[in-house]
Amino acid sequence: MAGLVKAKKYDWKDSNLALFGSDTERKVKKESAQTEPAWKGAGEKVGIQIWRIVKFKVKSWPKEDYGKFYNGDSYIILNTYKKEGSDELLYDVHFWIGQYSTQDEYGTAAYKTVELDTLLDDKPVQHREVMNYESDLFKDYFDDLTFMEGGADSGFRHVKPTEYEPRLFHFHGLKKKIAVKQVPLSRKSLDSSDVFLLDLGLTLYQWNGKTCNKDEKFAALQYVNKIRSERGGKPKVESLDESDTPSTHEFYKKLPDVDVEKDEVECDDTFVKSLFRLSDEGGKLEFSLVSEGSLPRSSFDPKDVFIADTGKSLFVWVGKGASTDEKKNAMTYAHNYLMKTKHPLIPVTCIKDGQESPAFEAILE
């Protein structure tokens, strides 16, 4: 890909989220959380707030770029909301890991997520999100999700259109679940079942594949209009249908015919949903299988921690009577367990007894 150097993808066999749930993490007191400048105003009113991890520090992400994430970075996303008829503020806090984010970055994001949870009196439901495996809850926060190559330092908003480095974006999905992802600048990136946008700065080409759907077309059109607005209406826009566009068109000339490495989304269709217990009742922490093939509601004991894996998502349930050791090691055990599965990147949600979400309730029998 022109102008882009592929970083190392995250290797979950080498990764370490020990900070998330460790003794070190639990020493993060509310007083220290209150000294973090980034948390000023966090969770004080309904809405979304996003921060990016920059060299172990938490930096606010511009509101105009909400929904846009660089695959080389890690982010923290806080959703503050109220239930109908209530004035109480409730929270979901997510840390999002880019495909090429470093271990230091996503380790810091996990650590700072716990700090933010502490600041908000342990009220938030915590989530781990990995690029391309986001939960439906996370996706619902944004009109569209855009994944871009590089880190935020590579920038895009303040580059003059005439100096803009060409980028190719891929639109895929249905209805409001359209994912927008920057892909290698190559003809081989094109797929007849989807829509692509070639952004040349002052010229925007929307390429509609032969079998793309109307939702992808509409999402691309909205995206194009947003870009034009950001650039003062200067870019020229041309919409192209694959069937009617000759191979000699300028669009194809701007795309080199080079091989690309396509990301493979891991799939574990053979997995049987399983429930595990984390307990120190016997004097030391033990992680054991409770049920396979079903997730019985009656198996959850408030004295312990339970980890429910559906193969598509994983829930860490912390009982009200769970011990300190069980609580502080819950996410670490969940993470280490997932590393050994064929689906290590699925969304993880940590919920407390009494804070069960509709998504969690839906998996129980």
Describe this structure in words.
By secondary structure, the chain is α/β, with parallel strands linked by helices. Helix 3 links the parallel strand 5 (90-97) and strand 6. The longest helix has 17 residues, at 103-119. It folds into three domains: 10-143, Severin (3-Layer(aba) Sandwich), CATH 3.40.20; 159-253, 3-Layer(aba) Sandwich (Severin), CATH 3.40.20.10; 266-365, Severin. The protein has helices spanning 23-26, 30-33, 103-119, 136-139, 214-230, 250-253, 324-339, 358-363; strands spanning 47-54, 57-60, 68-70, 74-81, 90-97, 125-130, 145-148, 167-172, 179-183, 195-199, 203-208, 236-241, 274-279, 286-292, 305-309, 314-318, 348-352. The model is unreliable at 1-6 and 12-28 (pLDDT under 50). The termini are far apart. 20% of the residues lie in helices and 27% in strands. The protein is globular and about 70 Å long. The strands form two sheets. A ten-stranded mixed β-sheet has the order 2-1-4-5-6-17-16-15-13-14. The protein has a seven-stranded mixed β-sheet with strand order 3-7-9-8-10-11-12, covered by helices on one side. The chain has eight helices and 17 strands.
